[in-house]
Design goal:
Number of helices: 5
Strand order of the largest sheet: 1-2
Shape: elongated
Distance between the termini: 39 Å
Helix content: 55-70%
Structural class: mainly alpha
Radius of gyration: 20 Å
Oligomer: single chain
Strand content: 5-15%
Length: 149
């Protein structure tokens, strides 16, 4: 089955037609699993440490551990961006210059939204169904926080 993919959101003129294959669906679902796992990992909170009650040695160790965790988090984020961009590039068969344009055209929220859109389209959701779901989500957010409307 051939699917037309809207590419305006990533700054590419189109639409681009792709064939929804078993392999592509597998890739799409693996990307979604990765994103869900990442969001679950981000939700984990660590116990609060009373920094002032630590000895100087413990403070140094704590600071080193925090720096390592920060570096690890940044590396995971970069790896995730690379995976998402690679998925978009391979799915839409974009050139290196096109994916570079995408990389510098959209922010991380737009990247996540577009990958979600792409996965939905690959899995058979129509443009109309996606638009309706987005409208419903916007309405829910307005109801939860009327100041943001």
């Amino acid at each position: 089955m051939t699917i037309k993919i809207n590419t305006k959101a990533i700054g590419i003129k189109g639409p681009i037609e792709i064939k929804s294959t078993v392999g592509l669906k597998e890739d799409a679902n693996n990307i979604m699993i990765s994103l869900i796992e990442m969001s679950i990992a981000e939700e984990k909170t660590e116990p609060e440490v009373d920094y002032e009650s630590l000895t100087d040695e413990e403070k140094e160790q704590y600071d080193r551990d925090q720096a390592k965790k920060t570096i690890e988090g940044i590396k995971k984020e970069l790896s995730t961006f690379d995976k998402l961009l690679d998925f978009i590039q391979s799915t839409l068969k974009l050139s290196a210059s096109q994916i570079k344009k995408v990389k510098y055209e959209i922010d991380e929220s737009e990247l996540g939204d577009y990958v979600h859109y792409l996965v939905q389209r690959i899995n058979g959701t129509s443009e109309a169904e996606i638009e309706l779901a987005q409208k419903i989500e916007v309405e829910k957010q307005k109801e939860q926080d009327p100041k943001k409307s």
